[in-house]
Design brief:
The complex is a heterodimer of chains A (411) and B (334). Chain A is α/β, with parallel strands linked by helices and 411 residues long. Chain A has 17 helices and five strands. In chain B, helix 10 (211-219) packs across helix 12, helix 12 packs parallel to helix 16 and helix 15 (292-312) packs antiparallel against helix 16 (316-333). Classes of the chains: A alpha/beta (411), B alpha/beta (334). The A-B interface holds A 252-258, 387, 390-393, 395-397, 399-400, 403-404, 406, 411 and B 244-245, 248, 252, 255-256, 258-260, 292-293, 295-296, 299-300, 302-304, 306-307, 310-312.
Chain lengths: 411, 334
């Protein structure tokens, strides 16, 4: 860990991948040097076996959510642009990481898919030489969202790119990329970062106490963004605690329904907390753009104001709904982790508990219930996730789940 | 204000009343609108049987067209001009309509229809100020429907009791055109008086079944009745998702009542369960025969059905029938 520095420093627990990318960056630099020497008329370039095998022009980075796929891609881009292969301090490094380097293009989408016209534009760009003296790096952060057409448009360029062009695609799993793309890329798999590595980063970067850092790292199960939120925001911790109090509330049918209602309400609250401020800002911006003067509803009202406000509110509602679903999904994953802990204890496995602080309750449940039942409970939560993804009314889906979580001895 | 206006819509203008003026037929109830227009045209015809009738859509009214239609003609003495859908009137033609309304021709009856609502509101207000004759055709509230049916029957030369009128509405639906048609049909087929027996003979079943009726039947274990209600509800266009959500909320209320602390007053109980106070008594009646296990099974069955009707199954109707069966079975087994 200590030797990892510069642009690689923030890639938590991905040492094997970092080693591969550093070799690649060195090989790339060696090739640039060799080409420069050749064009200066010093005869044939000395052969560089390491350079040939280390660098390639198309990469596919996969890894679980929160493992830092796009950060890895950016760090690699910076290392390619940097004279010292990723010092983290020069202009090339900083602009590459921030996404402002003219030779580093970052493509991501907030919509459902990456459309073919966006990719065609990218392909056109890929045929050009870099602006600077080094490489042109094209990063597609949501390669899993490429439409079929868009993926097809990429193929040719992925296979035979321009001399100094490097493609870096990111996707959650290798199955998310179509086979024709997969077979043209060199695959890098990020692992779920180990708890200790995440805890160290939290301590170093956000100056949280070691206990809190370890707790957040453990509870987030390797999702770095989630770990950061848990470590730095009191209310996120409070919400998680409330979610984990659900199993103890499941004593009878009414308790199940109340617990379900509170889970859904917690998710709604989280969504509201995330959107309230944003909504207000957007509304104010819209009014300013349409020239509403005076506050408190006085002053002339432009004719199209009402329609525009309505449209904005509709969009905000959709966003809030999506955020609520995401929040509910996170809550369900926390519950899965809880019952997984119970299963770990019940089976006598030596794995680390995610919810170490609830060990008493977990051990009691592990002794009271057979592993089959615990597995069925986990299945019930996963089925609830599927149901919500299939658009079942969230409250009804969660109710059905809490009922399934009821333990027979308590009925 | 609604019912007297609705009454007015049916009272035919007397001879020539619409002539020399502007009649604004305002409201969304198509049957009443058609009748008001017909009445205005009839009044013109009553004073001059050879009167010309021109009907056109407001959307296609060019600015000059109205002046052309209403200007004095050498041949026809009286004319009726019906312009439908004033809400779609092009903005540039509005002034022509307005200025005509302020200075109408004596031998022309201009009839305008507007569905109500916000569109073209400014023109409506100005027309009102110009003192045009307004015939309101608001949609009838459900409690006004029996009166409507009784009046229809009387208008067709027959009679119907209030109970029979209610039955007719249940079996035909709340569409005025269908109701009026049914009333006049029954009177001509069954003689002067429409009895409940006659209605049952001609209209079996129910036209409008709400998802809540299905849920109520299912949670009280009336399986056959619940299935029948479900078929009617789906046939009359109730969305499947409404049925699952009605079932879910019915069962949710029962489960919460079953788990509520004993000895609460009804008001507090209602708050605890999250239903209006009058519902508590209904819920108590429905709760008889249910066990906690039964309710648990039923809720899970409904959750599965909700996934099914949202694309999980090929046949949403079948999924609902299965859910209704599962709910009433859960009650008897639990």
């Amino acid at each position: 860990m200590s030797e990892v520095s510069g642009v690689w420093a923030d890639l938590v627990g991905q040492e094997p991948t970092v080693a591969v990318l550093r070799t690649a960056a060195r090989a790339a630099a060696a090739r640039l040097a060799a080409e420069a020497a050749k064009s200066a008329g010093e005869g044939a370039a000395p052969s560089q076996p390491a350079g040939r095998s280390g660098m390639t022009h198309a990469w596919l980075i996969t890894g679980p959510p929160g493992s830092g796929r796009s950060n890895t891609a950016r760090a690699f881009a910076a290392a390619l642009q940097c004279e010292r292969q990723g010092c983290g301090e020069c202009t090339a490094c900083r602009t590459s990481l921030a996404g402002t380097n003219p030779d580093v293009t970052l493509v991501r989408t907030e919509q459902l898919s990456l459309r073919v016209d966006e990719i065609r534009e990218l392909v056109r760009k890929s045929a050009m030489s870099p602006v600077g003296r080094r490489w042109q790096v094209l990063v597609v952060e949501d390669a899993d969202r490429l439409t079929e057409q868009a993926a097809d448009a990429l193929l040719k360029s992925l296979e035979e790119p321009a001399d100094r062009t490097v493609w870096v695609l990111c996707a959650p799993t290798v199955e998310d990329a179509v086979p024709t793309i997969r077979s043209r890329c060199r695959l890098l798999v990020l692992r779920t970062p180990p708890t200790t590595a995440v805890a160290q980063v939290l301590q170093r970067r956000y100056a949280v106490s070691p206990d809190l850092a370890v707790f957040a790292a453990r509870a987030s199960q390797g999702h770095i963004g989630r770990a950061r939120a848990l470590a730095t925001q009191e209310e996120v911790r409070a919400r998680r605690e409330q979610v984990l109090s659900v199993p103890s509330k499941l004593r009878d049918l009414a308790g199940c329904l109340t617990a379900a209602a509170s889970l859904v309400e917690l998710a709604a609250e989280e969504a509201r907390a995330a959107t309230a401020e944003l909504d207000a800002t957007e509304k104010a911006e819209l009014e300013r753009a349409l020239g509403v003067t005076g506050s408190g509803g006085r002053g002339p009202r432009p004719r199209q104001l009402q329609a525009a406000q309505k449209e904005l509110e509709d969009q905000q509602k959709v966003r809030a709904k999506r955020l609520q679903r995401d929040a509910l999904d996170r809550a369900l994953l926390d519950l899965v982790a809880f019952y997984r802990d119970v299963l770990v204890v019940a089976l006598g496995a030596s794995a680390e508990l995610v919810n170490e602080e609830l060990r008493d309750d977990i051990e009691r449940r592990a002794h009271a219930n057979r592993p089959e039942l615990i597995l069925r409970q986990i299945d019930a939560i996963l089925a609830c996730r599927d149901a919500i993804a299939a658009n079942v009314a969230p409250l009804l889906a969660v109710e059905s789940m809490t009922i399934a979580l009821l333990e027979p001895t308590r009925r | 204000m609604l019912s007297p206006m609705a009454t007015k819509a049916r009272s035919a203008p007397s001879e020539g009343e619409a002539l020399g003026g502007v009649t604004l037929v305002l409201g969304p109830e198509d049957l009443l609108v058609d009748r008001a227009v017909a009445a205005a045209v009839a009044s013109v015809r009553a004073s001059d049987p050879d009167a010309d009738l021109t009907e056109l859509e407001a959307a296609s009214l060019a600015p000059g067209a109205l002046a052309e239609l209403t200007s004095p003609s050498l041949f026809a003495s009286a004319r009726a001009v019906v312009v439908r859908g004033l809400d779609t009137l092009p903005a540039e033609a509005a002034d022509a309509v307005l200025s005509y309304a302020k200075d109408p021709q004596p031998d022309v009856a201009l009839v305008l229809t507007h569905r109500g609502g916000q569109k073209g509101r400014g023109l409506l207000d100005k027309l009102r100020k110009a003192r045009v004759r307004v015939v309101a055709c608001e949609a009838l509230k459900s409690y006004e429907l029996p009166t409507f049916v009784i009046r229809e029957a009387r208008g067709a030369g027959g009679r119907i009791s209030e109970e029979a009128a209610q039955l007719l509405i249940e079996s035909v639906g709340s569409d005025l055109r269908a109701l009026a048609g049914a009333a006049s049909q029954l009177i001509s087929d069954a003689g002067g008086v429409i009895t409940e027996e006659a209605i049952r003979a001609y209209f079996a079943g129910r036209a409008e079944v709400t998802s809540f009726a299905v849920a109520d039947a299912a949670v009280t274990g009336r399986t056959a009745h619940a299935l029948e209600q479900l078929r009617w509800a789906l046939r009359s266009g109730v969305a499947p998702v409404l049925v699952t959500s009605a079932l879910a909320s019915g069962l949710r209320g029962l489960a919460k009542l079953a788990g509520a602390p004993r000895g609460l007053r009804d008001g507090d109980l209602a708050r605890e369960i999250g239903v209006p106070p009058w519902k508590v008594k209904t819920l108590r009646g429905q709760l008889r025969g249910w066990s906690q296990e039964g309710l648990a099974t039923a809720i899970q069955a409904v959750a599965r059905a909700d996934a099914d009707v949202k694309g999980g199954a090929d046949d949403a109707d079948y999924a609902l029938e299965r859910a209704v069966l599962a709910v009433s079975r859960a009650r008897s087994e639990g």
